[in-house]
Backbone:
């Protein structure tokens, strides 16, 4: 059982599910635990130094989760590939959506033409789609992490329970984001329908 930052290094040296990701390095940084991430371009997993020092069990779980993303990339996991393809679209749509909706509502008020409004809703829907596609990516990375933490005996008992709890709460944030994104789409759909004369 590991009780300090050694578990984080173990997650990188022996990644989840017995998969090998060559050249993936662990780096610490100042910040928050939730800011931890894997950069496949730089071939590194970054885990918050404060979290490693203070919350070793949760930090090890996060490091294993990030390694799960590296495994997804190595195995060409379809939802991760789709999410990566959506990034440029969502980057554009998230910037353009609100101004498109506002312009569309002004046009609709003057001319009764809803087309621009619906384009805005479509742009918002791209963010909702991204949030929905993110769910299996994050849940799968957490499942890979927990499988490895348990099968490798890196964590047991209370430590494993804390890791499960940390990853479960992290997954719920993505679920809330997806529900919120869907609610935003519905809000604007009903707003447009309610303004029809």
Residues:
């Amino acid at each position: 059982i590991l009780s300090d930052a050694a578990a984080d290094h173990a997650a990188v040296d022996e990644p989840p599910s017995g998969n090998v990701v060559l050249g993936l390095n662990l780096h610490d940084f100042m910040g928050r635990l939730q800011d931890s991430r894997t950069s496949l371009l730089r071939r590194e997993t970054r885990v918050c130094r404060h979290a490693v020092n203070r919350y070793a069990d949760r930090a090890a779980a996060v490091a294993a989760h990030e390694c799960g993303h590296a495994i997804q990339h190595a195995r060409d996991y379809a939802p991760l590939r789709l999410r990566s393809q959506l990034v440029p679209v969502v980057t554009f749509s998230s910037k353009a959506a609100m101004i498109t909706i506002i312009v569309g509502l002004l046009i609709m008020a003057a001319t009764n033409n809803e087309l621009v409004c619906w384009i805005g809703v479509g742009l918002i829907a791209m963010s909702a789609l991204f949030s929905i596609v993110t769910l299996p990516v994050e849940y799968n990375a957490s499942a890979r992490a927990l499988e490895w933490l348990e099968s490798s005996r890196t964590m047991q008992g209370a430590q494993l329970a804390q890791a499960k709890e940390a990853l479960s709460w992290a997954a719920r944030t993505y679920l809330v984001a997806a529900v919120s994104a869907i609610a935003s789409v519905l809000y604007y759909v009903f707003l447009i329908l309610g303004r029809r004369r």
Q: What stands out?
A: Residues 1-24, 29-36 have pLDDT under 50 and may be disordered. Helices lie at 6-13, 49-54, 56-74, 78-111, 115-151, 157-194. Strands lie at 25-29, 37-39, 44-48. The radius of gyration is 21 Å.
